[in-house]
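Cross-check.
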Amino acid sequence: MYRGPVFGLPAHRNAVAVLALCLQGEMAFATHPRRADTLFAPCRSAFIEPGTLTWLRPGSGPHVFVYADALSGDVSRWRKQCRQRLAAGVSADLQGQDALIHALGDMPAAASGWLAARAKVQAVLGPAQRSGDARAALAVQALRDAPDAAHRTAIQARALGLSPSRFQHVFKASTGVPYRRFRNWMRLQAVLRAALSGQSLTAAALDAGFASSAHFSAIFKNSFGMSATQLLAAQPIWIDDLNPAACIQPTSNRAGAP
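Predicted model, tokenized:
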């Protein structure tokens, strides 16, 4: 989860589902993000499907973005709880949005703050259960356990007893995005965790399996619409729910430029 400011970003795609909340005022999403003359539809909360091209016009205050892979069970739950469709792959007006905005807006920048807010979030959204193909889940777990490993498509497919083409089909059907894009997403998470803990972005990117700092920078900007240095300079709160103790609010000089 990210909580912090939002910049004037170009259209971009995330490899996983995103629940977006505007803590003050309203944000707006482009109804046709590929068109320069698109209209923007306002909302306080929105659910974005994995791999969806989105163009966001932020509100006046901080925003919250909760990222979840398609196998977490959150995707189908969030989709059902939205009452309005804004654009292809973007739904809005999540049931209970006011309670969520209140809980996350008042959250202290500490692990204990997230644990308290998490209980309120679950009370609104209800419990999530894993879903999707078990073979895709094994591939996701392998990426989570060792994002720096090669994890080539052929190797993952062989481990699951599938042909590379069949593995690609199974993975995309379960997660909504191609395997390579999801693998990059898991590596980006590893870089952010390391950078927020004080490691330089260059070292973190190489440790996470990126071929070079330039490769990492290109993938990061394609995923988030900004550079990693821009994101970290905003001093956001970034929380890894698999490790709530990793809730960190960095200082602007903790991470070096890639």
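The longest helix spans residues 179-196. The chain has a mean pLDDT of 83. Passed to J.P. for a second look.
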